[in-house]
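REQUEST FORM: STRUCTURE PREDICTION
Request ID: SP-0412
Submitted by: Lab K.M.
Chain count: 1
Length (residues): 347
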Amino acid sequence: MINQASSPWRITFDTNPDDCNFRCVMCEEHSEHNPNRRTTQSQKRRMPIALIEKIIAEAAPLGLREVIPSTMGEPLLYDDFERILELCQQYQVKLNLTTNGSFPKHNGKGGVDYWAQRIVPVTSDVKFSWNGATAKTHEKIMLGARWDKALNNLKHFIQVRNEQAAQGGDYCRITFQLTFLESNLAELPDIIKLAAQLGVDRVKGHHLWAHFSAIEPLSLRRNAEAIERWNQVVEQAQTIAETDRLPNGKKVLLENIYPLEVKATQNLMLDGECPFLGQEAWINTQGRFDPCCAPDIQRRSLGNFGNLHEQSLAAIWYSEAYQVLQQNYQQQPLCIACNMRKPKESQ
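STATUS: Completed
RESULT:
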């Protein structure tokens, strides 16, 4: 059974999943392989800021430490993103941000310096979506990205982070966030080298959720041979993390970069545990409580737990339905095949 916290320590808000200026091939929402992409303004889902204000006000006194705005769209395109920054300051809650690193202008505001100056002081971790060590690979996976611009933006953001930390501000960790794919596997060691050279503290990734049949050949869990090649690259990656150090002499942290059992095509980790249940919460655009970050259609199979427009977070957190899921999740087909389960010692 999950050891449940008294309240979620981190909440992810699906603020604006349909707003993005990239079309990454593996993206649940924006991939060109998705025939149901929402392309018009009338189709796009956006969370009302009042709901976020309500939930943070309730959860902060109970132990909320971090909030994450949309990880499926580009959060800097959310109209009320700066209000989220204000809420983080007001309630002493840290932001945990995933961005494609383009720092787009929106409503007349934007650019890397504009956002870096505002984001760094209230943020625990900024995860830059980064899927290659070369322009060709990065741009092929992240359609719409420009390698030179991404590098320049990253370097400027790191400079702002370092300057604010030197002035006594809290240290904002910077992460390369990637999806492990057939098309970028060979470049994983060089991504770690690049992180060390630039001052990126961590390289984190996860295996592909194959939302569409067209991208199934990109999965490194599709057969034993692919898993064996993954394991060989993991060994190289771990060696590089030891030898290629950050400018401060520390190792680049590696997350989810570990060998898999050859049989992990259906079950990623036979004794792995869920790192989310009883610890974190997801709130979808319409206010629905979700127990994890699985693709939207799939996570609905775990049950209906309630809506934050109508119920308090605490009422859902301690509901019978959510307690039952925590006790029995390892019997759920979605959980058995989940890409996010971790070894007990890594949690």
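NOTES: The chain has a mean pLDDT of 91.
Reviewed by: T.R.
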